[in-house]
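FAQ: What does a multi-protein file look like?

Like this. Sequence, then tokens, then the next protein.
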Amino acid sequence: MISILRRLSPPPPLLMEPPNSCGGSQRLIALAQQLRLYKPPPLPSSDDIEEQRIEETAGKVVSQVGFAESDTPVARDPEKFRPKRAAVLVCLFEGDAGDLRVILTKRSSKLSTHSGEVALPGGKTEEGDKDDGDTATREAKEEIGLDPKLVNVVTVLEPFLSKHLLRVVPVIGILNEKEAFKPDPNPAEVEAIFDAPLEMFLKDENRTSEEREWMGDKFLIHFFDYETKNKKYMIWGLTAGILIRAASIVYKRPPDFVEQNPRFKVPRVVDRNTTIP
């Protein structure tokens, strides 16, 4: 087994490797080193912003319209709100062909809302969660049976805003020992667990987009068609947006297509019924 990488200085608590973590392949070691250096864009202080409770359906983060918070200047206006917080796990591992892959889920078709949609494991922050990494890995264990000890959390990306204006923090973790992960979907929430190549979200293949408008500003929603083991999946909205950003950071290049994120103003009155169309 390869020993844990030594560091010149202690990282922040979120970036600490789990006690049982091992180094993995040389490529995964290099990727972990690269991602630990990533610094998400800072958000303005929101100490003086009045908090308003924004609810997300069933407390889960599902695939829907979502944008990087830097493209939606909610926190920059003291008249707006401090949204509720959630985290999703972008869990990467090395495939048999040597490519980087990400773990995804398909929500149960029995759910009354957002049934059958593709999502990253994740959900709302709960009391007792130490940080966003704790939230993301806890939810992954609940949803797909992924032991948090197997996941080396290396960084977080800038928050995204979901359709219902929930602040969603993408947490990037590395699964060094993919054979140790025995998928165990929670049937109440998850219908299927699958993985896809991360680089797919930078390519213009099997991708379509739809232009929408909100408050006079146009933006694009991206849809990725993916087929594996004779099953077809549609990856879009919030999940697609997060994976486009994650892939751009991992591969250090922009996507082959135009993202066209919105730079709109949030409505003056924001409540639990406010959504991005």
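And here is the next protein:
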Amino acid sequence: MQAPTTVNPVQRKASRPRADALRNRERIVTAAREVFVEHGPEVPLDEIARRAGVGNATLYRNFPDRDALVREVVCSVMDRTARAAEDALAETGDAFEALERFVHVAADERISALCPMVSSTFDQHHPDLEAARERVEDLIEEVMGRAVAAGQLRPDVGVGDLMIAAAQLSRPPAGTGCLSHDRFVHRHLQLFLDGLRAPARSVLPGTATTLEDLRQA
């Protein structure tokens, strides 16, 4: 008589290391974002590992060099910011509310402090970075177009205008007192957003700034 087949208990535990590894990776990215904002992109990686509560070997197993870690931080921030706008649009269908959510979450995520690291540290055309950037740009173009069509947004502003103003109003950049600046940011951003509402109360000088204008600047 053939012995009954037994289930290998190791297979039931196979997912645990992957879940632990994912949590470690998320802790590293979260800690890196905080440290980069506080001290800039050149902070020692062992400080990031310490902040994340992992060993240096774990950090390097996930991110072989500084460029890989900075890129992951910037991409994750752009993804969360885009998701905030998508969620607002799905919840209410209000394009201007989605635009407001995007701008305020972008400030909370420190995009103005983190994105300049891209041009100074690594290839701006890395596929992951380009995909994250394209998602954000396409989404904001769609949201602004819907807001204009609904009569909510003045038609003489472009995506570039929004990006420049949001970045300037949510400064200072990394390592220059971001935390003490927080109490002003959302107040000033809301003043800016109110100025975008239709009908326009003034005529803007120049022409609307596009994403292509920003790339050529």
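Q: Is there any per-entry metadata?
A: Some entries carry free-text notes. For the entry above: The radius of gyration is 21 Å.
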